[in-house]
């Protein structure tokens, strides 16, 4: 918060004002000379604002801390049991201590079903609703920052923070796993082995798939963010609806309807653990995520353009 005002609204107003050129004479249309809508609320200014927030620092810090917590938890187990790598039916979790690649993949398995959804919901659900809750949204628009530009800059920063969080997790797990268990080949549950180079390439594919497939969660959180003035409601609503989709996907009686659920292909990235890689479900999951994201972001932008801003 501002060391002078101790108020988030003041922080937002000061940061935005710093990006506005010095006032000058107005032209014939009444627009101040030197005012350029495209120069308001620069990406760097908004990014620095978000990085100073405790929730951003805590979230990114937790993505680094989670692999450490998992490594400590694995240390309490029976090493002989955990290293049952000769078993063709061993699960990827059993192989977590086989090397850096296995440890990174296990960390992603633990995080993909819930943690990453919460993180993305937090960054995107907080975009507009937090400004409204601080009563700074109307001041940003009155500066004036055009509505579409405000949304674009907010979404770009939320996307950058989400991608950073998704990257931090496997990178930290890979480095920590290498230090603790060595940079040996990744061993899959069916006994295939991948070199370190192939492991890094497949981790990159997993990160790319997660970043694309989870865009629908970002779109949902954004739509809820422009629909409410309560950030917790937007974040919680996105998480709950995602969990609902996951539950419905487990009900076999729904048959082919499950294929249309946005979470149906959420774990298609495990196809990278087979040789050759199974691309079919990952491609379907990627297009499904992008399709839902375009619809949800579209509705969110339309709602924000017409919304009566009172806070």
Automatic annotation (TrEMBL):
The keyword Disulfide bond does not apply. GO terms for cellular component: plasma membrane. Keywords: Membrane, Transmembrane, Transmembrane helix. The chain crosses the membrane at residues 58-77, 103-124, 155-183, 203-223, 230-248, 282-302. GO terms for molecular function: ABC-type transporter activity. PANTHER family: INTEGRAL MEMBRANE PROTEIN-RELATED, MEMBRANE PROTEIN. This is ABC transporter permease. It comes from Nakamurella antarctica.
